[in-house]
Design brief:
Length: about 260
């Protein structure tokens, strides 16, 4: 079975390397649907997985100066306390109970569909923002919206392990349309590191991380991400996003049904 996990990690890493999104959106449902891992353990293990892999990405983006640290600070101001409160709530309601596991399963499905919407509408959203510059938030309103967005993402990521990628990036595009694609990616990855780390610590406290599973996933995903990033230039982005959106829609439907 461990080799199967390695291959699953490689496949997810390959797709993440090519598209930049889809890690939690694919890994958590994959563990739940194909391998029968309980929703709570799938979420906890994926959060630890994300914290490690995104740390490497942050180091790269820091050297290329594509991280807007002021925005990262605002997102973390909302996301980190929300993640702690969400972990406490999971502990109170019983993170490993069958009933809450079902709630987490449906939360994963909703998060996956939000990711699909973010993927499909991102370019249209950006075009609308550029066409209506007067609607863009400024000053304190922008700061408050960023903090609130971080809080929403903090809860979503802690409960389902999904949302820090495509949803977070789409919110950044909406709030800060002048950021370059590289700055959106770098800032999105940078704030996700402390968020997924704190959420993972919460799940460690809850006892919902499978460390051997995490290790085998990392063995496959690290070379997968590297090869995916190398292949990204040869494959059209529109095709990749359509493939990812189709896969995630099927995953969400399977989770609900």
């Amino acid at each position: 079975m461990s080799m199967t996990y390695v291959m699953a990690g490689f496949a997810v890493g390959l797709l993440v390397g090519m598209t930049g999104v889809g890690g939690g959106s694919l890994m958590t449902p994959l563990l739940t649907l194909l391998f029968g891992v309980s929703p709570s353990v799938a979420v906890g293990t994926d959060l630890a997985f994300a914290a490690i892999t995104k740390s490497a990405g942050t180091i790269t983006h820091r050297f290329t100066r594509t991280v807007q640290w002021q925005i990262v600070g605002r997102l973390c101001l909302g996301a980190l306390p929300a993640a702690v409160l969400a972990a406490i709530a999971l502990n109170h309601f019983g993170a490993l109970s069958e009933q809450l596991g079902q709630v987490i399963r449906y939360t994963i499905a909703v998060s996956v569909m939000l990711t699909v919407v973010a993927l499909l509408l991102r370019s249209r959203l950006l075009a609308w923002i550029h066409a209506h510059p007067e609607r863009q938030l400024q000053g304190r309103g922008l700061a408050a919206a960023t903090i609130i967005s971080g809080a929403v993402l903090g809860v979503l990521v802690t409960v389902s392990s999904i949302g820090a990628g495509a949803i977070g990036a789409t919110l950044l595009v909406f709030l800060y349309p002048k950021l370059s694609p590289a700055e959106v990616a770098g800032t999105d990855i940078a704030y996700a590191v402390p968020l997924t780390a704190i959420a993972a610590l919460g799940h460690w406290w809850l006892g919902s991380i499978d460390w051997m599973l995490l290790l085998t996933l990392l063995v496959g995903s690290l070379p997968g991400i590297t090869l995916g990033a190398m292949a990204a230039r040869a494959v059209p982005e529109r095709f990749l996003r359509a493939l990812l959106a189709t896969t995630l829609t099927a995953v969400a439907a399977k989770l609900v049904l």
